Amino acid sequence: MMAQAPAIERLAGQQPPAEPPVAAKSSPAAARAIAVAALFAAGLALPPLLLDSTWNAVLSLALIYALMGLSVVALTGFVGQLSLMPATFVGIGAYASGRLVTSLATPFWFAAPLAATIAVPVALVIGMIALRLKGLYLAIMTLVFANVVEEFIFTKPWLVGKGRVVDAPRPHLGGISFASDKNYYVLVYLIVALFLLLAYNVSRSRTARACYAVRDNEDAAQAWGINVAKYKLIAFALSGFLAGFAGALYAHWLESVPSGGQRPLFGLEFSLTVVFFTIVGGVRSIWGPVIGGTIWVVLVRRLLAGSPNGVNIAISIFGAVVLLTMLYRPAGLVAWIGDARRKLGRRGRWAGV
Amino acid sequence: MGRGVVAFFEVSEVTIRFGGLVANSDVSLRVEQGEIVGLIGPNGAGKTTLFNAISGFNTPVQGRVLFEGEDILPLLPYERAARGIGRTFQGVRLYPSLSVLDNLLVSFHAHMSGGLAANALRLPWARGSERRARQRAEEVMEIIDLHPYSAKAAGALSFGTLRMTELACLLMLTPRMILLDEPASGIAQRETEALGPLLRRISDALGATILIIEHDMPLVMGLSDRIYCLDLGRVIAHGAPAHIQRDPSVVEAYLGRRVAEQLEGSGDA
Lengths: 353, 269
Fold this sequence. Notes:
Number of helices of chain A: 14
Largest sheet of chain A: 2 strands, antiparallel
Structural class of chain A: mainly alpha
Strand content of chain B: 15-25%
Radius of gyration of chain A: 22 Å
Largest interface: A-B, 42 and 63 residues
Number of helices of chain B: 11
Order of helices and strands of chain A: HHHHHHEEEHHHHEHHHH
Helix content of chain B: 40-55%
Helix content of chain A: over 70%
Strand content of chain A: under 5%
Oligomer: heterodimer
Order of helices and strands of chain B: EEEHEEHEHHHHEHEHEEHHH
Strand order of the largest sheet of chain B: 6-7-8-3-9-10
Distance between the termini of chain B: 48 Å
Strand order of the largest sheet of chain A: 1-4
């Protein structure tokens, strides 16, 4: 256990160690790259080729939900802060993008990122409050804040227009129109895939490790040289941006975004839905919201689509599933996939012996 | 050191109060570069409180903490760590859900470059920094013999292994000043005996200065160049280990006045 330390002296000083010889691309890595590329291409091409437009609309909504869930992962999964207002940022992105396109004639390609950027300072305000509040208190505060935004901002004519509906037409690029559900699916797929790729890169990097350290033990993170406040704020900003971008995609998926009413579109119910399906899928993995979001959307939009109480039934089911997940498998559904892969890998090695 | 007057590390007349409770009163101590200095005293003497003040987890009402001649009290804890003051906690505080490897990499954070955007886009400098960090982690795991645990979550380790992981994290952070809070507590006697030489090696290899709180007397007496003894928040004695062991006020602090007097009496007889 205790080391006889032969090479400890080598670590003296800060000089970088010698570069390792560049290994030739091993065949498992190449095989993996091919598998990922094939999966990516299949996801891009198969739904528009094989499925009808309703299914394409449902699947694009699933991907948009996955992006909303990714904003929960960035916050709850990365730095362990629970916010119950993801839908508020979705709403900001949705109204902002719609208004930018319809009232200011901004092309979608600028409006969507701009709308997501508008959500960032709002998220940073919540983040600054979160530096002082912890856990349940923060969750309650976000709940109140979400209500305030819903009541006093999402109902204002300067934001949602006099007709209380913001139009959000689907974009086009040169001669290509993304108006049809199939084409819009392709657009959403490419954007969400790009975000997942970036999130994947981040999740294995110095930045994410600092966030995980903050999540696991703030004091230790401080003592080992990590600026806890900075990484919390980064997580809030990132979360706001992702939710805002998802909101923009959602607005143009809906094509017109209503405001207010008896059942607010971007209220607590929506926020809880996003948090729920992300937890079920796996809140610490960037694939969790993809799994959870897809299950949720397919469940509500297809399987229970005929039922007048479809959403209520689905929320009840999901509430129970969230409870079970937290009790028995906090890592979420994505963890079962990890198990299966490990099992398969072991069997593979067995066969190799 | 240049000017001999400026100590490498100095705590100067520090007083720490929690409400009406005086946890440290007018504590001063000096540590020269490369020294290993012990900090002993009975429970509640204010040793960990002093560590917390040095690393920035509480604020003295009075006094200064000088590192290389500069007052570090205005700095936040992470800034002090990045400046080169590393510390361990009583009972080990690492990141339970992260693997041993990731724990090591987190400790190298301050030496790495690459922010959110650079990492998202896998820009060359971020990748290079990551590669060097991983290589260093490999070397450190080799030295501390942690390779078998590399992928294991820190929360699943035995306490002894956790201690070794913490020392490995120190080798990643490479502080110039190390504060160790009871490194031998909770590990087996056999491991404690090997800990002294290992700490000495780490100190020599990194050129690091160590301030160590420890209740294991053979360890702290054998390891330390000098020792400060705290009792009720004050420094009651300091000097070489041999001197400290004979100091009547130290014996009294640990055993109480009556026992100390009895011991003295029996020694005379």
